[in-house]
Amino acid sequence: AAWATWATLLMPGFRRVPLRLQVPFQASGPRQVANALALLRGRPGKTVDLGSGDGRLVIEAYKQGLRPAVGYELNPWLLCLSHCRAWRAGCHGQVSFLRRDLWKVNLSDCYNVIVFLAPSVKPPLASKLLAELPDEARVVAGRFPFPSWSPSSSLGQGLEQVWAYDMKEVRRAARRSPGGSPV
Fold it and tell me: Is 121 within a domain?
């Protein structure tokens, strides 16, 4: 049963992703979602969730006025679930869920980025975000912080904790550090 679940539901999203960058789906709890979106409250600009899973963060971001709201996910089953959730929430057609590899998506027009991914993904993702995001962007990480970045703020405790990183501050800290590498 476990193998059948893996083979039909989870594996399709992993086929083109190197093993060290694979992140299994784990649904965000209501408190995690609330904490992440509290750190983005009132911010203008495009909001994206990298590895959007079942879409709950994107849908709630849209409901709280963060628009446009876009989710990037490789797993077709999770994308289908995201579309169903959006339809049930009454925002189908108002939010976007795209089957795209987050490593190939251009993030230069994103001002609010949500990342609930595994620690193994954070260092290479940090490099991508630094290269592509504008200075005004804010990155909110859930479950695991970026190991070499200092957060601008944090909310919650334990598994519900989220960290916010303002790209201007991350870049400023990188210039001040002896090695100069914020990754």
Answer: yes
What residues make up the domain containing 154?
25-176
Residue 95 falls inside a structural domain: yes
Cβ–Cβ < 8 Å for 76, 12: yes
CATH of the domain at 47: 3.40.50.150
The long-range contacts involving 80-87, CB below 8 angstroms and separated by at least 24 positions, are: 81/54, 81/55, 82/52, 82/53, 82/54, 82/55, 82/58, 83/55, 85/54, 85/55, 85/56, 85/59, 86/55, 86/58, 86/59
Q: Please tell me the total count of domains within the chain.
A: 1
Q: Answer whether residue 123 is part of any domain.
A: yes
Question: ω before 68 within 30° of 0 (cis)?
Answer: yes
How does pLDDT run along the chain (183 residues), one tens digit per residue? 665 655 555 555 444 444 444 456 677 889 999 999 999 999 999 999 999 999 999 999 999 999 999 999 998 999 999 999 999 999 999 999 999 999 999 999 999 999 998 888 899 999 999 999 999 999 999 989 999 999 999 999 998 999 999 999 999 998 887 665 555
Does 101 fall in a domain?
yes
